[in-house]
Amino acid sequence: MTEQKTSATLTNGSAAAAILSSGIGCFVLGAIAHIADAHKPFGKQLSIYMPTGPLSGISTVGIVVWLASWVVLAWRWNNKNVAFKSIGIAAIVLLLLSVLLVFPPFEDMMQGK
Fold it and tell me: pLDDT digit string (tens) for 55-69?
C-alpha cells in the first residue's frame, strides 16, 4: 500500500486583500467626508436619508468601495503569495490618512478656516 502525502500550500493573498481593502475603504470614507464638508452642494447630493444628511451617502460610498476593492483584490490575489509586509504598511498608511482627513483641526486647516 502506498501512502500519498498532500501538502497544502498556504497563501496569503486572500488575507492581504482583506487588509488592503479595509485601508482603501477607510481612506475613501475619510476623503469623501472631507470633500462633502468642504463643498456643501456635493454633500447635499450624498444625502440618501434626510434625517442623517450627507453621512448616509458618505458611509454608503465607503462601504461599497471597501466591498468592491475586497472582491477585486481577493479575485486577483486568490491562491497567490503577495508582499504581506508592504500590503500591511500601505493599509496602515491609508488608515492614518483617513483619520487625518476627518480630524477637525486638520480639516479646518485644509479648508482655510
Answer: 899 999 999 999 999
Q: Is residue 58 part of a domain?
A: yes
Tell me how many domains the chain contains. 1
Residue 12 CA to residue 14 CA, distance in Å, equals: 6
Q: Does a structural domain hold residue 18? A: yes
Residue ranges making up the domain that contains 30: 13-111
- 6 domain-assigned: no
Given a contact cutoff of 8 angstroms between Cβ atoms, the answer to whether 62 and 21 are in contact is no
Q: What angle do CA 45, 50, 54 make, to 5 degrees?
A: 45
**With the C-alpha atoms ordered 97, 103, 105, 108, is the resulting torsion angle positive or negative?**
positive
- The pLDDT tens digits for 11-64 are 889 999 999 999 999 999 999 999 998 888 888 898 888 888 888 999 999 999
Contact 61, 29 (CB under 8 A): yes
Question: Angle, nearest 10°, between helix axes 13-38 and 104-111?
Answer: 60
